[in-house]
Amino acid sequence: MTSVHRIVGDSPVLSAVKALWRAHSDTLGFFPEGAFADYAARGQIAVALDDRQHCLGYLLHRVASDRAIIVHLCVSPESRGTGVARLLVDDLSSATRHLRGIGLRCRRDYDASSFWPRLGFVAVHEQPGRGHVPAQLTFWWLDHGHPTLFSPRTASMGPSLRVALDANVFFDLVDSERAHAPESRALEADWLSNLMELCVTAELYNEIERNPDTRTRSWNRHQLERFTILHASVANFERLHGEIRSVFPEKLNLRSEADLRQLAHAVAEDAGFFVTRDDYLLSFEDEIYQRC
What we know:
Elements (H helix, E strand, L loop, with lengths): L2 E4 L6 H11 L1 H4 L4 H9 L3 E5 L5 E10 L2 E9 L8 H12 L5 E7 L14 E7 L7 E8 L17 E5 L1 H8 L6 H4 L11 E6 L2 H6 L4 H10 L4 E3 L3 H12 L8 H15 L4 E3 L3 H4 L2 H7 L1
């Protein structure tokens, strides 16, 4: 059985953490060995241990103002895919619930970019890296649900009927050249503005992140400001995602998995409708409706 513990002071587990970092320093980057002791002294290194007290992975974080920042999340190769990363992130989320959320930066060209959405993170913005080899860094965010003055518009600010948009419908609304844009833009008719509130889910940040063009990603993120963003709490999202996921076959492609996450956010935030033209998703609409 795997358990998560905080390293305290000069714990003997610290040497195993350093060994894991050294083995994967090509992606984790340079980190002074003395800094490990500093983070441990502050209780900011969590380790996942098996029954024999072997280190399966570790998470090292810092606190910046009102957020926690993941510096390292590293799982041994033989333990990947077993839920160790989720245990470590859940532990950090519980320990920092008083903060706004958890953030991290990760290179777009790293495999982990397809991994963070599965832990509930969304890709909110990006910036150029400072290394010798130019690389784009994506900032991933896991929100703890605390409202702030600078939060995106909340669903309570608009009409009572919330309509959540699938990614393709959103892209139609922000790009008039797309084939289905005229049909989708019927949703923006003046007579509908007082009847319903057009919403998108936080998962849309991750859909935008998949576009290889930097300028298009920037434009689409800017267009999100036009819509209410639905971002469910982690607990609500995971519960509803599990219910919806059980309707579908065991294996799904990346696009369908993203659609399911959008649905879970929409249902968790009480959206009355989810607008999509995805035939595969629509083929399950009756069962999804019954479940949710």
